[in-house]
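Amino Acid Chain and Its Fold in Token Form
===========================================
What this section holds: a protein sequence and its matching fold, both as plain text.
Structure line: whole-number tokens from a learned vocabulary of local backbone shapes, matched to residues.
Purpose: to set a sequence beside its fold so the mapping can be learned.
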Amino acid sequence: MEDRPDARRGALLADIERDATLERSDFLVRAGEQLDRFMTANADRVRELGGLVLIDDDPDYLAVAPDGTFRSRARVFDEGRGEWVAETEVIETAAELVEIYNPADVLQAFIDAQAGEPIAVEGDEDEADGNAAGAVDPYAGAADSWAAGQPEVPEVDDESDAATALYDLTLDFQERSQQAEAGLLEQFENAASALLGLVRPLMIVEDDDEQLTLELGGFRGRVIPEGETGWQDLSGPDEIVRFYDPTDVFGDLAEAIAEAYPHVAEEPDDGPDRAEADGDEPGEDEPGEDEADDAGDGNSDGEESKAR
């Protein structure tokens, strides 16, 4: 009987999830059709302009080519190489684009776009002529942008100057690291935006000198920095990563969700057939189950996020 409220809550959430999924699919279809109508109406203008760069905010890049297709570049983590790499992909239709970008942001980018160099289309029969006339290969542009973003390291001749240059380089990459981490939090906020309105605010960290929550609108927090007495509000990812490691944030958030909604962390019930197939009697506990539960309870009670 004690599990009935949680089961009821789980059923309600499942119903909400199903309706939200249907509404999201309907929204994307209608948004894709609207953006497609916009692109069709302006196809001749885009072709005459030679394409437009819509977003050029390293590492994010989005451009529309003269033929109406889009070029998108994003930075992803290559686990095999152990580093962040920039990937460029061709997006053929507006329907595909709205799966990646907010349609309102795309239209705003068209509003803000300024006429620039033409965007070349890879594989175009007239590509060579276009390049001769000044067309720009977006892949080459991405490489140039990457090169332009690399730090300048001065030539040094002695240990003292080398230490100074190394110190400056370290601070530069510390800032870059925080920007990359802030990007992860921002990507999570965007991906989770449709879900946050359906769940109650989640307390991730709550201590005498730090608080961090996830609610509608994203992460919110405040801390008392070391050596100070007043609270400092953390209103966005850029500020949050100054005090928190995203890995810790996501780990603590997972625990907070499991604590608020216990059913999300429950092991699936494989039923008596699975138990009998494994040679266990129906209802027999798995070896070590109680110990695993005790260990899990200990972790959830003992771990807290710490300011960086």
The longest strand covers residues 70-78. The chain is about 50% helix and 15% strand.
